[in-house]
Amino acid sequence: MSRHPVFRPRRLRRSEGIRALVRETTVTPGDLVLPLFAVPGEGVRRPVGSMAGVEQTSVDELLRDAEEALRLGIGGVLLFGIPARKDEAGSGGYDEHGIVQTAVRALKRALPELLVITDVCLCEYTSHGHCGVLRGGDVDNDATVPLLARVAVTHAAAGADVVAPSDMMDGRVGAIRAALDGAGFQDTALMSYAAKYASAFYGPFRDAAESVPAFGDRRTAQMDPGNVLEALREVRMDVEEGADMLMVKPALAYLDVIHRVKAETGYPVCGYHVSGEYAMIEAAADRGWIDRERAHREALTAIRRAGADLVVSYWSRQFARLAAAG
Ligand code: PBG
Questions:
Q1: What pLDDT digit, counting tens, does each position of 246-302 carry?
Q2: Maximum distance among all alpha carbons in the chain?
Q3: CA atoms of 115 and 73, how far apart (whole Å)
Q4: Which is the closest atom of ligand 1 to the Cα of 314?
């Protein structure tokens, strides 16, 4: 039986004032994490063709972007590196003078309050573009894990606040935690990409990070899009191995996964609104098919509403600029 006309839900939708008063989910710059791509050199600012507004920058330029992010109240930055040289074993990833390590040191020196998260993976550093060392055409899990631990320790030594392994090797969270603790970095937090899917939505990122696999794909490591119970098993393992925060990636196509991970663990959850999800909005907006700003805001709100405490977004800077402009 309808309670109309006593109940009139539209009363709470009549003005922005009242809508704002009863809004359940909000997004603020502090909920967002801005990805940054560091390249060698000086004065380099190279736009990524497939991702409007995203650039590869040398460390000096990256400092300017990070300074703005801090000033605008963005929650933190997530650093990726593109090394000068790549090799079979991805050794640039665990070089203490590597590109990310250098960038982190510069950031922490110039902007000590900025929260710095680093991506821990080998795919940007290997000549074949896979996330670890190969054996017989596939990534060798157990040979890769100690290398990932080395990557994480060099990032922590450079001053990273949070290390974020994105490779999906089995057992890497425990190995990284043990290596960090063994090296005296007990206070470095670990955000695990606990549920990372083998997604078509990473396409533009692989341009940005120059990490397209030379052959094959990542389906032997990343999760099948049909699975959510498996995601919960992955998450439980990572929590047991010592993860402090959990990442679900992609975010917009996996809102149910975010919701269940949050509900079942209660841990801080981060949604990675990935490159392809971002690029779809940008491309449709370029054609005048959707309203750019509203679509981006709606996507970020949906990810937060599903249960993400924080969101990695390529739109963080634009969001924060608009928020600052009022
Ligand atoms: C791997 C990594 C990837 C992304 C973040 N970390 C690519 C992949 O797994 O192929 C994708 C992020 C995005 O698409 O925005 N180091």
A1: 999 999 999 999 999 999 999 999 999 999 999 999 999 999 999 999 999 999 999
A2: 70
A3: 11
A4: 15
* 304 in contact with ligand 1, CB cutoff 6 A: no
Q: Which two tokens stand for residue 139?
A: 């990534």
Mean pLDDT of the chain: 95
What is the model's pLDDT at position 241? Answer: 98
CB-ligand 1 contact for 313 (6 Å cutoff): no
What pLDDT is recorded for position 298?
98
Angstrom distance (rounded) from CA 238 to CA 25: 28
Distance CA 62, CA 95 (A): 20
Ligand 1, atom 8: closest residue by C-alpha? 202
- pTM of whole model > 0.85? yes
- Tokens representing 144 are 């890769």
Total count of residues recorded for the chain: 326
Instruction: Decide: 193 in ligand 1 pocket, CB within 6 A.
Output: no
Write the DSSP string, 15-30: SHHHHHHH-S----GG
Let me know: does 114 contact 69? Beta carbons within 8 Å.
yes
The Cα–Cα gap between 37 and 208 comes to 7
Let me know: does 93 contact 122? Beta carbons within 8 Å: yes
CA-based nearest residue to 245, from 273, 271, 272, 269: 269
**What local confidence, expressed as pLDDT, does residue 214 receive?**
82
5: pLDDT confidence band, cut at 50, 70 and 90? Answer: confident
Structure tokens of 190?
């670990």
Per the annotation, the verdict on 196 as an active-site residue is yes
pLDDT digits (tens, 9 = 90+) for 118-149: 999 999 999 999 899 999 888 999 999 999 99
Question: 180: number of CA atoms within 13 Å, CB side?
Answer: 29
User: Would you identify the CATH topology of the domain 25-247?
Assistant: TIM Barrel (3.20.20)
249 is catalytic: yes
Structural contact between residues 250 and 199, judged by C-beta atoms closer than 8 angstroms: yes
Confidence of residue 207 (pLDDT cuts 50, 70, 90): confident
- Ranges of beta strands (E only) in 209-282 are 245-249, 269-272
Ligand 1 contact via 121 beta carbon (within 6 Å): yes
